[in-house]
Amino acid sequence: MGQANIRAVNKTVKALKLDENGRYAANIELLRTLARQMDAAGDDPSTRLSAAFLSALKDIQRSSQVVVQVQQEERRRELNDDERREIRDTAKAAATSAGEPDNWVDYLPDWLDDFERYLIEVL
């Protein structure tokens, strides 16, 4: 009895970080159970077992696409937050060095909203 399928499933789940969130726990457990059964069946798994295993693999693939999209969205938000901080710091430094009053904060939120809309369009 080999363990190629269960090892491959565990590597995939770990690489895609699907087990960090309980959202996919049922799919992952089903896939692991089917992988163990495939390993136990050796070179002669039943057609139904093979079909169920392939179907579960497709479900995990779809799940991984969602996870990647969420990670990309989180990263984009982080970049926007970093850019906002940088813009804020630059604007404050410019206003302070120019001897202007420290009321630049009143105008910054409107400008940031416009800049955020621009970034969303560009990205």
Element layout with pairings:
Elements lengths: L3 H13 L8 H17 L5 H51 L10 H15 L1
Helix pairs in contact: 1-2, 2-3, 3-4
Quick recap of the structure?
The protein has 123 residues and is an all-alpha fold. The protein contains 4 helices and no strands.
Helical percentage: over 70%
SS field, number of helical segments: 4
Shape: rod-shaped
Q: Averaged pLDDT, please?
A: 78
Computed structural class: mainly alpha
Give the amount of beta strand, in percent.
under 5%
SSE succession: HHHH
Instruction: Give the CA-CA distance, first to last residue.
Output: 50 Å
> In terms of per-residue confidence, which ranges show pLDDT below 50 for 5 or more consecutive residues?
none
DSSP strand tally: 0
Kindly provide the radius of gyration, computed on alpha-carbon positions and rounded to a whole number of angstroms.
Answer: 25 Å
Sheet with most strands: none
Question: What are the salient characteristics of this protein?
Answer:
123 residues, mainly alpha, 4 helices, 78% helix, 0% strand
Task: Give a description of the structure.
- There is one protein chain.
- With 123 residues, the chain is mainly alpha-helical.
- It contains 4 helices and no strands.
- The protein has helices at 4-16, 25-41, 47-97, 108-122.
